[in-house]
Amino acid sequence: MRQVPSGAALHARLIWRRNRGQIGLFVLLALLLALYAFLHPGLLSWAGIARFTQNWFPVALVAIAQTLVMLMGGIDLAIGAMVGLGTVLAATLVGESALGAGLGITATVAIGVAAGGLVGTIVALFGLPAIIVTLASSFLIGGAALLVMPRPGGSMPGWLSEGLVGVHPTALLILILILIAWRVLRATPLGLSIDAAGDNPAGAFRSGVNVALARIAAYAISGGLAAFAGVYVAAQTGAGDPLIGNPLTLQSITAAVLGGVGFLGGQGTIRGAVAGSLLLAVLVNVMFFLGLPPVAQYVMQGLIIVAAMGIKRLRERAA
Predict the structure, then answer these.
(1) Are 226 and 83 in contact (CB under 8 A)?
(2) Which in 74, 83, 241, 303 has the greatest CB count within 10 A?
(3) Cα 149 to Cα 231: distance, rounded to the nearest angstrom
(4) What's the pLDDT score for residue 181?
């Protein structure tokens, strides 16, 4: 008589199936981190960790934002433009006082949430392709950023920039809090709806899940995260720049794909995307220390996407 696996064994098997595709990612990440620490010994100091996480943090945020949308079977080509809009809004709205800074950051993130929710509404209710809607949105949002601030300018409070981009790894703490918030959200009806709608939209709909609302929520959260990334970039540079976020769109997609997120939805995890963003950040720094030109970074990102998707397809065929 065949023995039925215990509940613990089934749970362990499920965890293995979800994470086996990420083993190679974490091994490669460990090797690159070791190489980076060898090339730049200062990385292992408190200040080195703070500097590295400050540069990595915006990429991690947009990777999470992109993953939320891709888990729903969509893609967001307006993330970079939203980061640019976030920088100019922050440099315009954030005041010198603690209250003024809090209100300015809240307003900036709220605008990002509203814009993302509007994009999600168009995609979910009108059934238009996400790639077309978000491409058009990138021009609209980018144009709005240029209307707010045609050229780099504005300012951020010195105390806020020092707190976010100073000698302490504040960015790492904020990232941990965001990941904890995502874990909490997943335990709520909204989080469960996003998970279910991304994994099996038809089955989720038959189970009573409001798939359209879940998709709108994913885009809204994504927009808020991208706008907050803009706030952080403005704190880094001390000013707003309407075009500074454009490269982050490709980086967000690259990091998500590296983390095992599929383009058809329902595949991948947030932690995988964060690990993919970390791998991308380490790779860029290693290329810099090896003396490779900046244009090589864009070539490498394109090759990474093709290679990651090719490896995934070969693994699926082998299974």
Answers:
(1) yes
(2) 83
(3) 15
(4) 92
